[in-house]
From TrEMBL:
Keyword Transcription: no
PANTHER family given in the database record: GNAT FAMILY, PUTATIVE (AFU_ORTHOLOGUE AFUA_3G00765)-RELATED-RELATED, N-ACETYLTRANSFERASE DOMAIN-CONTAINING PROTEIN
Gene3D superfamilies named among the record's database cross-references: 3.40.630.30
Signal peptide bounds: 1-21
Lineage, highest ranks first: Bacteria, Pseudomonadati, Pseudomonadota, Alphaproteobacteria, Holosporales
Protein name in UniProt: N-acetyltransferase domain-containing protein
Domain of life: Bacteria
Species for this entry: Candidatus Odyssella acanthamoebae
Amino acid sequence: MRFLKIITIGLALSGSSSLMAMDKDIQYNPKQDLPLSPYKNFMASENTMLRPLFPEDYKALCPIYTNAEVVKYFGPGIPLTIEEIKKQALARAQRNDCQKSLAYHWAILAHGGIAGSVSIFHPHDQEERTEIFYCISPAFGGRGLATAASRLVIEFVGGPFIATVHPKNKASMAILERKLGFKRDLNRQNVEKYGTVRDYFLLNEKE
């Protein structure tokens, strides 16, 4: 799996005497930053940034997982309690630190705060593709953040991918098919999965 391990952002400040006086002999070693979780597997596009999910991010995910209209498309469709969301965020953050974890989870950072999360699940249950899953807080909807975040993950992980969607979640289907290039798996529609039924969509590796 090809993750972007570190990104260094340079800021040019015109007329800054402190930068002008910086010791040219000081050498920056990016390896020193690798243990810093915010910069490990960090990704960025023009309007979206992804960093590993932290336990404290549960606060930003509460508007998603406590909202009955949103979670009706997730798993069995039952809203979670704040304590359940807290435990879920902790478990996902801990998996991010496991080298052999079957999953990885990012927080989606946008203007205004944490907009949601995007996750991958490595091939499992005899599935030969990496599964991708995203969720966006209602306050951040309509800004293309699910699309942007998914594109970042798809670009760096490589694929091939699979995604499953509740048959009534037309908005998510539109993202997969029209924005990300997934194709409907006609052999797997209305399949019982995650305590409900799901339609399958596939995306092959880039040639």
